[in-house]
């Protein structure tokens, strides 16, 4: 992405101020979004927690990486145990009057924000005494975090907890230990702002466009009528701030999440309990299977938001920026194999396209057949041109009678001849197989 060069005047200003260490954000955050983003990306390069390059990690791994940053400016307390007995911990940075609560990975396989929180905690610990921007945050806000609220789900890299329950549909009944720990913390802290940090299906598009939604934001409704009171308006303003902060990193790949009220979901209920709550969903970004670019985008957005909350500048933002975002749109299928001839054992060959969705879309693994037939004109994330070639399904792509079945693993040879001797590509759940 092209960036405007740092204006000479502000570069001189930065040089003239006493800089405690290279890479500090201070003396204050630039107001120009591009400049600010550049500065925060440099910061991120320095404080980025090591050992989280793969988005699949356990809570134990995460805590072992973060543990050295605790006990100083960032304090820690246990607030409960998961269904399988893993500790749930609440971290705190800052002593200011505005209380902020962030929680991540309530869904065990949604780890992007947990990586960004590790980076944030490292910055809090390392620069608490030296970075003026961090000083402003610490004086203006008390920042609380519950990282990896669903550690049992994280251990399996699955959405639900060990009891098989979606913790984010347990806000009303409070039957899961994870849901109870969050509810008790919200009741105790009575936060002014809440950040509910998730990942969404990377195949979702922005509105009616073909653009992948990198980020979706929501200032959730607190009742069926979707009324906007002062607290929801503040959440909308902070969401507008996030749009501005994240645009330098993801452009117009930002959508608005569906705002129907869900009384079983925590984001909605925390809002109903009185906090200005913001949902951040990290979706997909091209060639970013481990979501490292979106981790950075979360970091930049959260630093900007915490700073504006601490110095009460969130009021400068117009809720209309958030409000005018297109909603999350359709989800594009992962792969279209177009133009080939299907050769099934003992059946007449036919002109047939295949649509494939991956169980692990970011890695393009675990492909399953989702449609067969005339799929000309169907939009997909990727297209494989099979014109002039034969598709010969094999293995469990076929049922016991040798018929091709939707829902089964996508396994086929792409060949130049119907006999299947001249193989161009072997697709074995993944296009990489050759
Ligand atoms: Zn989620």
UniProtKB/TrEMBL annotation:
One example GO MF annotation: carboxypeptidase activity
UniProt cofactor(s): Zn(2+)
Pfam families: Peptidase_M14
Swiss-Prot/TrEMBL keywords: Carboxypeptidase, Hydrolase, Metalloprotease, Protease, Zinc
Residue ranges of the TM segments: none
InterPro entries tied to this protein: Peptidase_M14
Domain Peptidase M14 per the UniProt entry, residue ranges: 61-170
Family: Belongs to the peptidase M14 family.
PANTHER family, alphabetized: PROTEASE FAMILY M14 CARBOXYPEPTIDASE A,B, SLL0236 PROTEIN
The protein, known as: M14 family zinc carboxypeptidase
Biological classification of the source: Bacteria, Pseudomonadati, Gemmatimonadota, Longimicrobiia, Gaopeijiales
């Amino acid at each position: 992405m092209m960036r405007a060069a740092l204006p000479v005047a502000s570069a001189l200003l930065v040089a003239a101020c006493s800089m405690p260490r290279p890479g500090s954000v201070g003396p204050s955050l630039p107001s120009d979004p591009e400049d600010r983003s550049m500065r925060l990306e440099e910061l991120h390069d320095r404080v980025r927690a090591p050992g989280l390059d793969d988005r699949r990690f356990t809570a134990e791994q995460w805590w072992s990486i973060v543990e050295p940053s605790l006990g100083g400016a960032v304090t820690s307390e246990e607030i409960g145990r998961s269904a399988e007995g893993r500790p749930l911990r609440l971290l705190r940075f800052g002593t200011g009057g505005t209380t902020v609560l962030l929680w991540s990975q309530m869904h065990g396989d949604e780890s992007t924000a947990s990586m960004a929180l590790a980076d944030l905690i490292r910055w809090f610990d390392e620069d608490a005494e030296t970075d003026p921007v961090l000083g402003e945050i610490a004086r203006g806000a008390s920042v609380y975090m519950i990282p990896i609220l669903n550690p049992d789900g994280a251990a399996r890299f699955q959405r639900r907890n060990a009891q098989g329950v979606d913790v984010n549909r347990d806000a009303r009944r409070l039957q899961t230990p994870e849901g109870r720990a969050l509810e008790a913390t919200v009741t105790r802290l009575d936060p002014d702002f809440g950040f509910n940090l998730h990942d969404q299906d990377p195949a979702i598009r922005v509105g009616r466009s073909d653009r992948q939604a990198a980020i979706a934001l929501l200032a959730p409704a607190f009742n069926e009528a979707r009324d906007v009171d002062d607290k929801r308006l503040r959440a909308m303003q902070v969401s507008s701030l996030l749009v501005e902060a994240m645009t330098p990193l993801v452009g117009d790949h930002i959508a608005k999440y569906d705002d129907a009220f869900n009384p079983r979901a925590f984001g909605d209920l925390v809002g109903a309990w009185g906090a200005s709550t913001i949902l951040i969903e990290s979706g997909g970004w091209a060639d970013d299977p481990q979501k490292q670019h979106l981790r950075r985008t979360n970091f930049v957005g959260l630093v900007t938001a915490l700073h504006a909350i601490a110095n009460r500048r969130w009021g400068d933002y117009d809720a209309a920026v958030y409000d005018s975002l297109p909603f999350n749109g359709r989800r594009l299928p992962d792969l279209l194999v177009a133009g080939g001839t299907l050769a099934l054992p003992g059946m007449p060959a036919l002109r047939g396209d295949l649509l494939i969705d991956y169980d692990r879309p970011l890695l393009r693994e675990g492909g399953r057949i989702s449609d067969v037939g005339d799929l000309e004109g169907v939009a997909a994330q990727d297209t494989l041109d099979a014109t002039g070639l034969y598709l010969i399904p094999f293995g469990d792509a076929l049922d016991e009678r040798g018929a091709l079945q939707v829902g089964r693993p996508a396994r086929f040879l792409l060949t130049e001849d119907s006999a299947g001797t001249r193989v161009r590509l072997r697709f074995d759940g993944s296009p990489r197989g050759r």
